[in-house]
């Protein structure tokens, strides 16, 4: 919840449920969610690797969006592979990271749990 969400309705709901909202300082994710940041970084690395390969494939296939800008110039953007591609990419990346092991044979999810104590 950001400051823009403050309202009497929210204050009432928080009081009714005996709930308080506390804010973490900026750039504190690795301190308060070390397991998430560790596993997510592995997924991001896999996403970047696979997306870079797809972009290279699109370039080799000469798959440009072919849209003309208002000034008459071409945009130079690659064709968007679509929502289905990105959903499958996300699933494939998570699946790949779930099957990875470190040099001791531990999955990254298990290693993240150990890191968190």
UniProtKB/TrEMBL annotation:
Domain of life, per lineage: Eukaryota
Recorded protein name is: DDE-1 domain-containing protein
């Amino acid at each position: 919840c950001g400051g823009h969400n403050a309202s009497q309705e929210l204050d009432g709901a928080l009081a009714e449920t005996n709930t308080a909202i506390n804010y973490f300082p900026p750039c504190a994710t690795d301190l308060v969610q070390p397991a998430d940041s560790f596993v997510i970084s592995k997924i991001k690395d896999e996403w970047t690797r696979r997306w870079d390969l797809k972009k290279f494939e699109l370039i080799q296939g000469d798959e440009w969006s072919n849209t003309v800008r208002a000034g008459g110039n071409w945009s130079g953007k690659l064709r968007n592979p679509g929502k289905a591609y990105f959903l499958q990419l996300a699933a494939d990346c998570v699946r790949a990271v779930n099957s990875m092991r470190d040099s001791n044979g531990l999955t990254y999810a298990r290693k993240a749990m150990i890191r968190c104590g």
